[in-house]
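Figure-free illustration: sequence to structure, shown twice.
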Amino acid sequence: MKNFRLFLLIFSLMLNCACQAISIEPDNIDTKLKECISSDYSMSNMNNCVISGIESREMEIANYVFNIKTYLNSNAIKDFEVLHNTWLDLYNKDKNFIHKNIFHKIGTINTNITYGLLYEQVKARALLYKSYLNNLKINQ
């Protein structure tokens, strides 16, 4: 039980630090994620909350991709599609690596670590695309 409490403390601090490092204020997805985790600190609930956060971030990324393309000419759209598809390929390779080398290690904490790593990747990409979109809007 001591290890579990230590994990919760570390996980909460990491999530809080990540939110502050990437953006000044947590956004709606981060807020929902924290509320979800706070409702039940069981490992399975934390995993389900983070998986839901990953899915929300993936939808956010898809929305940004669509909106970014509306500000680009046909050549820039092709370049952006190459960029995005390259990231998707890397993300899928990261997922495979993380699942093979972290998720399947002995200990239930590794499932939380796995989903936390994946969440941070999609969050970072979503925030990058948000920045792209904001800059494209300003410079139009």
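We now fold a second protein in the same way, so the two outputs can be compared directly.
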Amino acid sequence: MRNTDTDSLHIPDYTVMADSLAQDTVPPEMALVIVKDPVPTLQVSERDVQTSVNSWIFIGLAVLFCLICFGFRNNMRSLKSMLHDIGNQRERGNLFDDPVRKGTSLILLNIMSVCECGIMLAMAVSPDMHISGHNVSVCIGFFAIYAAVIPLCYLATGKIFLDNIHTSLWLRGHFSTQAFLGILMFVPSVLLLFRSGNGLFAESLCVILFLTAKIIFLYKGLRIFFSQNIPWLIFLCYLCAVEIIPALITYTCASRFVCPG
């Protein structure tokens, strides 16, 4: 009887211990989930990262556009003066022109134009016309180098073959052309950043605007060269050495950097 009582007294202790172990034990399925993916909500896809970079680029363009609009708000004569510089061949002062405001707006417009042309270049060199924030940043950098070198080439060419007045007119025509290009390319370049199903259309529009601006500037350069009795051969050499070769080098470098294979 004592043994039976002892067994009956110990059975509840073992039962309690078994129940406590059963309550504290983690199910195998839950343990597997914890080891496999501790914090699944912290994972960020690559597409989200690239969209974030493109958003910052768009914010920069929007800030530039707002500053430019604010600068032209009470000074529309500067805009007309830049339009006049595109086709002007005579040095003629304007008493109503504000060179400080015009210079600031011209610089901002050219910076915006560089960014937009960099976006166009990124779309052109990217495989399957898919641009990423990294590619856009790289191509903007390459086009900024191109935009900084080209005016120096124009200046050197003008010093060799033209006088100071026509060199100044030529350079002003270049910066004014790029300024209006920046205005016209704002909307299609934003469409390129976020595609929205219009990537090919926006890219084609950007290329057409860029080539049109180049043709207008080349026509002004042609008139200036011939007004100074410069031979055709000199103009063709300038066309190849200054207009075509730097553009091809920029495109090739950007293409190899974006698509190293």
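Summary for the second example: The longest helix spans residues 133-161.
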